[in-house]
Amino acid sequence: MGTAALGCPVERSSTALFGAKEMNIAGHEKHPRLHLNFRLLPGPYAIVHLAPDASIPEWAAQGEFTSITRSANELSIVCPAANLPRDVQSPNRWICLRLEGPFPFSEVGVLLSFIEPLSNNGIPIFAISTYDTDYVLIQEEFAGAALDLLQRAGHELWPRDESWRKLIE
Predict the structure, then answer these.
(1) What is the CATH number assigned to the segment(s) 37-168?
(2) What span, in angstroms and rounded, lies between the C-alpha atoms of 149 and 13?
(3) Against a cut of 0.90, is the pTM above it?
């Protein structure tokens, strides 16, 4: 048992706090990691940062998957890289993975289960959640390693044949 900064005793292990079962801080049993199906969308994709008061460009809403998010600080656009006009730059090219949802809002750990093997191996991601599912974008330079890590973690790339390889080569 350790001591927190305020002098309160702190257990170092969740199993010590809650017995043999892995429990979270709220006393709920921890959920096991999920094995998910996912698809590689035709790409590449671009991520663009515009001024918060910029108009939404027409090219931003074209394609199988786009995401347009406005906040007080920015207008963020994710779209197929082929949509970008010559005067708009995106520093990286990305592959886009779509988790095969839908997932109920009560489902815990969906995105964590998917991105943890990537995070544990230093692969940066850009995640977007929608009402039904999640999308994970990965810089093209990490695509091969990321797909390998995801499959070794038990996630399954659909379709099951090797047709997806032509999209990243």
Answers:
(1) 3.30.2130.10
(2) 28
(3) no
List the Cα angle 101/105/111 in 5-degree steps: 60
Cβ atoms of 17 and 80 within 8 Å: the answer is no
Do strands 37-50 and 156-158 pair parallel, antiparallel, or not at all (unpaired)?
parallel
Q: What is the pLDDT of residues 78-136, one digit of tens each?
A: 999 999 999 998 989 999 999 998 888 888 888 999 999 999 999 999 999 999 999 99
Strand bridging mode 94-99 / 67-70: unpaired
- C-beta separation of 119 from 113 below 8 A: no
Alpha-carbon span 4 to 57, nearest angstrom = 51
Q: What are 40-68's pLDDT values in tens digits?
A: 999 999 999 999 999 999 999 999 999 99
* Residue partners of 75: CB distance under 8 A and separation at least 6: 49, 50, 51, 52, 53, 54, 56, 68, 69
Q: Give the span between the Cα atoms of 72 and 11, in whole angstroms.
A: 41
